[in-house]
């Protein structure tokens, strides 16, 4: 950080917000970036939103920010690559070190890591697209359905916002789901479906250790897909979630365990399903949660208290420093 920011902890900061990029989640990323920038500008910070492209490195050098807040969603923003560039540029940044990004970004790796930490997660198999041509699609899907049972959820190895994610309860739907998934990734995670209440638990760490925010309950018309997430009217949110206090506490504890197990930094969001017995199941971890007007992290932060204050604390305590 600049000398002024170091000597005066309340001084305005020069903040670069990275958004956009070339992923399937580009539009959501831009909305997240401008939403966060608006809050930070209102706090008096000097904020520049940069659409990630061939000019980004030169722009970062010219702007010389005190801190960078990467908000590029999807594989290219959350797999550690962008974070490695920022580390190489000796720029402090909000979020997670590239090592934690890699563990969380690849869904099978994340599931294996949290399972080793004692977290329940649905059984699954991960298969590359090439196997379906080499071994025969019908034969492979028959083996998978026999092993996991139906219904299942099919999702890309990487990515978020529900893109390429499908629910399948019979053989025909499973075939269709695989085609949809492979449009987004060369590898597919096929996961046993757990019926229950969808919760999202955000975790923040501003230097005093990770703490969970109130759980957000998601109720959508149909599946909680991309359209349900970002088009108002298809989903309803309850924060805190309409679950017993003991269930919410277990969900929050699981989210903190996931955050620690994956080595995450300033902020994360863990998506869970709570079954009929009140048991939370880990579904996914997000190292760069959405920050749009209908995103779950800001809802939880607002319910916990002062959202602008939290954002200010985050930029003043970046998780990764040179």
UniProtKB/TrEMBL annotation:
The keyword Manganese applies. Keywords: ATP-binding, Cell shape, Cell wall biogenesis/degradation, Cytoplasm, Ligase, Magnesium, Manganese, Metal-binding, Nucleotide-binding, Peptidoglycan synthesis. Pfam families: Dala_Dala_lig_C (PF07478). Its cofactor is Mg(2+); Mn(2+). Mg(2+) 1 binds at residue 271. Its EC number is 6.3.2.4. PROSITE patterns: ATP_GRASP. PANTHER family: D-ALANINE--D-ALANINE LIGASE (PTHR23132), D-ALANINE--D-ALANINE LIGASE B (PTHR23132:SF23). This is D-alanine--D-alanine ligase. The lineage of its organism: Bacteria, Bacillati, Actinomycetota, Actinomycetes, Actinomycetales. The gene is ddl.
């Amino acid at each position: 950080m600049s000398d002024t920011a170091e000597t005066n902890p309340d001084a305005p900061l020069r903040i670069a917000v990275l958004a956009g990029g070339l992923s399937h989640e580009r539009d959501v990323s831009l909305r997240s970036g401008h939403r966060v920038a608006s809050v930070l500008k209102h706090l008096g910070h000097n904020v520049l939103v940069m659409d990630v492209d061939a000019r980004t490195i030169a722009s970062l050098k010219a702007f010389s920010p005190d801190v960078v807040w990467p908000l590029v969603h999807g594989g290219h923003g959350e797999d550690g690559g962008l974070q490695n560039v920022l580390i190489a540029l000796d720029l402090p940044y909000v979020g997670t070190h590239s090592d934690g990004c890699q563990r969380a970004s690849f869904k099978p790796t994340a599931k294996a890591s949290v399972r080793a930490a004692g977290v329940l997660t649905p059984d699954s198999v991960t298969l590359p697209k090439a196997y379906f041509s080499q071994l025969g699609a019908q034969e492979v899907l028959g083996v998978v359905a026999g092993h996991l049972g139906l219904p299942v959820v099919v999702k890309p190895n990487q990515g978020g916002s529900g893109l390429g994610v499908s629910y399948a309860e019979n053989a025909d739907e499973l075939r269709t789901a695989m085609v949809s998934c492979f449009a987004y990734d060369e590898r597919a995670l096929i996961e046993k479906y757990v019926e229950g209440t969808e919760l999202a638990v955000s975790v923040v760490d501003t230097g005093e250790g990770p703490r969970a925010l109130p759980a957000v309950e998601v109720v959508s018309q149909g599946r909680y897909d991309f359209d349900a997430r970002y088009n108002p009217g298809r989903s309803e949110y309850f924060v805190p979630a309409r679950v017993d206090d003991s269930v919410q506490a277990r969900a929050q504890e699981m989210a903190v365990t996931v955050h620690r197990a994956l080595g995450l930094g300033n902020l994360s969001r863990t998506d869970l399903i709570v079954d009929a017995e009140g048991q939370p199941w880990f579904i996914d971890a997000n190292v760069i949660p959405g920050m749009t007007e209908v995103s779950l992290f800001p809802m939880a932060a607002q319910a916990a208290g002062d959202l602008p204050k939290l954002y200010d604390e985050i930029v003043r305590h970046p998780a990764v420093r040179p």
